[in-house]
Write a structure and sequence with these properties.
Layout lengths: L5 E6 L4 H13 L4 E5 L7 H7 L3 H6 L1 E3 L2 H5 L2 E7 L10 E2 L1 H12 L3 E6 L8 H4 L4 E3 L12 H17 L16 H17 L9 H14 L3 H16 L7
Parallel strand pairs: 1-2, 1-6, 2-3, 4-6, 4-7, 5-7
Helix pairs in contact: 1-2, 1-7, 5-7, 8-10
The structure holds S-adenosyl-L-homocysteine.
């Protein structure tokens, strides 16, 4: 398994010190692939100082404008949060989360996504993830510093790598679909559901989120996405366009 296939993604970090501390936490656990989404200040001396010897990770880190861009080539993304969401998002314990990521990394790129220091990840950002994980804490004081959360998850990833990898579901001849492919499918699905009058464009969020959950649980292969899109194309051909 290639370690570079496991990406740690920090969304909108505002303190450069946290970026450096996250790099240090990663390097100590053998991880090397850091992606920053729209960091407030980067590069920065403070990040280098807090990296304390892990500045090589900072030098190689990828900077993206959006989370969508950061995850495009990944086939698995797991979000982290200290909060339970109102919609019951598929959740994994930190150890199970690490195992999934290590298994997934044998088949391509995977990502573990961390949120903003103040506000965490938005629901729309969690929509881009197939699962999320919460590190158990004191319920009355559940919010960890983001670099501390990276440290704990990096440790879980190191432990998971030491365990024998379980075989991934799915067939050997069709790779798992990337998140960019899955996103393309979701957009297509939404268009067709609106065209056939099943989805009300005035109130689309909950239905789509529930469908995301369903398909995320299934772990779609590339071939399956192609079949589903083929069905949507065939359905679309039989339906008069609403807005044209
Ligand atoms: N007040 C924010 C907390 C953000 S803490 C909120 O309500 O979401 C910054 C980031 O650190 C979070 O987005 C998450 O990625 C990580 N984090 C903090 N505490 C965590 C915990 N208990 N479990 C998992 N991730 C956590």
């Amino acid at each position: 398994m290639s370690l570079t296939n496991i990406r740690i993604v920090l969304v909108n970090p505002s303190h450069p010190g946290n970026i450096g501390a996250a790099a240090r936490a990663m390097k100590a656990m053998g991880l090397e692939s850091l992606t920053l989404v729209a960091p407030k200040i980067f590069p920065s001396e403070e990040a280098v100082a807090r990296a304390a010897g892990a500045e090589d990770l900072l030098g190689r880190c990828r900077v993206c404008a959006t989370l969508q861009e950061a995850l495009a080539s990944c086939h698995l993304a797991i979000g982290t949060s200290n909060r339970q969401r109102t919609i019951d998002w598929p959740m994994l314990e930190p150890g199970a989360c690490a195992q999934r990521l290590v298994e997934g990394a044998a088949h391509g790129e995977v990502a573990l996504v961390f949120g903003r220091e103040r506000t965490g990840l938005t629901n729309a950002e969690l929509d881009r993830c197939q699962f999320f994980t919460t590190i158990p804490t004191n319920p009355a004081f559940s919010s960890l510093n983001v670099a501390a959360a990276v440290q704990i998850m990096a440790y879980e990833l190191m432990r998971a790598r030491a365990e024998p990898a379980a075989p991934l579901q799915g067939s050997a001849d069709s790779p798992p679909a990337t998140l960019a492919e899955i996103q393309g499918y979701y957009q297509h699905l939404e268009e067709i559901l609106i065209a056939i009058g099943f989805l009300d464009p005035e109130n689309p969020r909950k239905l789509m989120r529930r469908l995301y959950r369903l398909f995320n649980r299934a772990g779609l292969e590339q071939r399956e996405v192609n079949i589903l899109r083929g069905i949507l194309t065939a359905v679309g051909e039989g339906v008069p366009r609403r807005h044209s």
